[in-house]
Amino acid sequence: MLHALLGAHMDWHDARLDFLARFILAVRQVRSVNLARLAPVLSSRAKTSSNYIHLQRFMRALTIDQENISCTIDKRPSQQPWVLTLDRTNWKLGRAEINLLMLGVALRGLAIPLLWTALPKAYSGLRGQKPPMVLRSDVTLLCSPSGNQSLPGTPPSHGRPSTPMSDRHPRIPALIAALICSLSIPTLAFADRGSVSPVTLAQVTTQTQRDQVVLTGNSVPWRRAELSPRVEGLVTELFVDEGSLVETGDPILTLDARLAELELQAAQARAREAEAASVDAIRVRDELLELKKGRHASEAEIQSAIAKVEMSAAALSGERAAVTRAQELVERHRLRAPFAGMVVSKGVEVGEWVQRDEATVELVAMDRLRVRAVLPQREYPRVAAGAEASLRFDALPDRDFGGQVLARIARGDERSRTFPVLIDLPNPDRLLAPGMSARVRLTLSGPVVPVLTVPRDAVVTKSDGVREVWRVREDEAVLRAWPMRIETGRALGDRLEVVAGELAEGDRLVLLGNERLRPGQEVTPQEDDSETTTPD
Q1: How far separated are the first and last CA of the chain, in Å rounded?
Q2: Structure pTM?
Q3: Does residue 124 contact residue 485 with C-beta atoms inside 8 Å?
Q4: How far is residue 278's CA from residue 313's CA, in Å, rounded to a whole number?
Q5: What letter does residue 411 receive in the DSSP assignment?
Q6: What percent of the chain is modeled with pLDDT above 90?
């Protein structure tokens, strides 16, 4: 159906129309214009890599003309003057940042872009800055019959010609632009300003905390061992592979122990023989002692019997020790895990001959980790064992982990004047692994300093990792909520430290209900502003 609808407005061939239809459906499905996310769902018949290449070719050939979009929107039946939207957004293309300012028109909940221009830098707002274009509140869209479309207030093209489109399909660029921008750009739409959203508010507060220092570090194993068997032999069983989790005492591998088992059987037989001889010697001694009462046994016979009892007991003890030794020898043909952890490497297979000093597997403890960070020399006197540490790993950027300083190593680098510091970090859920990079925030000894804090629930983390809060301001006796980007630091109970952002003590933030807000939307507090305080 979508294929036929597009074909009625475009003179493309069927294959290209089919790809455009699948592209639009894929965008609506994943709610993103990220090509890596679109490729897997674009078609089940082709490989993801092939879909990705086709998407790149399609996007390179796609052009969106500003004037044709304006003309297309102007032909839509709607009441004028139009409701305009203004959006400042920041995109990333690889490592390059692209900062755009867009003028759009609000239509059925979508902000369709009409004009856009690149900014020299990421604007946090237009206050105190000259905006790239000036908007008039009474703008009316115009589309002349001759095809020269214009928009009042539009800056001149500076001699750059625009590419006119065929009259047969002027709406297709507008359709694609509306679809892409409605899914990927957070617009400042005022079309629904009349709707009121009930929210719960909280305030930005100041707390006093000690100075901190932020370090970079890497996680290292708390315990690590290369396991070797205690005897040489042929590997007959292997119970683990790379990535296997084991507990203390779990078997790792077994060597051929047939000869050791035969020696054990022989030792057990000798022990039984010695035990029988000991029992017989005791019996003879006891009989002679009874005969002595009737003076039917001499003292020499009795002493000889007692000596045989002692010798048989000694022989039995020796044979039992031989049995224990043989059992230990058999057990040494089994390699067991000395502690709980994960097998991270395996260097042996069934059928191979291993020596006593040959490493077969590498085992790493996972329930705890150590983070090794580098401490500047000026902070060395202010860090002590047991000091609190807050860690944030690049692999889990939205989660803070708590640890303690285990030790500071008094061996500095003469060139960088830094000293190693070890942080002990529990890892009960095994979310972290050795080799991960982390940012370590250490609490230093010394005076306390004031810091701004916000409730944890007031912070919204977006898909690109950016954190923002919704600040409530009064606008003509009406409360409206606006998003504000912030950077957070350490966790302070149920609150987060604010290390960057245009917040001030006493600012009101949306605590509950911020997941459904639009910029500039009117809000009504359900409860009084809550001020959460934390002891110093």
Answers
A1: 65
A2: 0.44
A3: yes
A4: 6
A5: -
A6: 33
Give the residues of the chain that fall short of pLDDT 70: 1, 3, 7-11, 31, 43-47, 62-82, 91-96, 107-111, 120-195, 527-536
CB 501 within 8 A of CB 485: yes
pLDDT tens for residues 242-271?
999 999 999 999 999 999 999 999 999 999
164 close to 473: Cβ distance less than 8 angstroms: no
**Residue 57: how many CB atoms within 10 A of its CB?**
11
| 228-256+334-362 CATH | 2.40.50.100
Q: pLDDT (tens digit, 9 = 90+) per residue, 180-215?
A: 444 443 333 343 444 677 888 999 998 877 777 889
Structure token pair of residue 521: 């939307």
CATH code for 368-525? Answer: 2.40.30.170
**What are the structure tokens assigned to 185, written together?**
């750009």
Q: Which residues of 247-283 are buried (b: 16+ CB within 10 A; e: fewer)?
A: eeeeebbbbebeebeebbeebbebbeebbebbeebbe
Alpha-carbon distance 515 to 525, whole Å? 15
Q: How far apart are the C-alpha atoms of 372 and 421, rounded to whole Å?
A: 6
What backbone torsions phi and psi does residue 93 show, to the nearest 5 degrees? Answer: -120, 95
259-332 folds as Helix Hairpins (1.10.287)
Report which of 64, 80, 72 is spatially closest to residue 147, judged by C-alpha positions.
72
Distance CA(457)–CA(202), nearest Å, equals 10
H/E element, 160: none
Query: What is the location of CATH 2.40.50.100 in the chain?
Result: 228-256+334-362
Cα separation of 334 and 322, whole Å?
Answer: 19
pLDDT digits (tens, 9 = 90+) for 354-377: 998 899 999 999 999 999 999 998
For 10-69, list the strands marked E by DSSP. none
Tokens 């407005």 — which residue? 9
**Other beta carbons less than 10 A from residue 6's beta carbon:** 19
**Backbone torsions φ then ψ of 332, nearest 5 degrees:** -70, -10
Go through the chain and tell me how many residues it has: 536
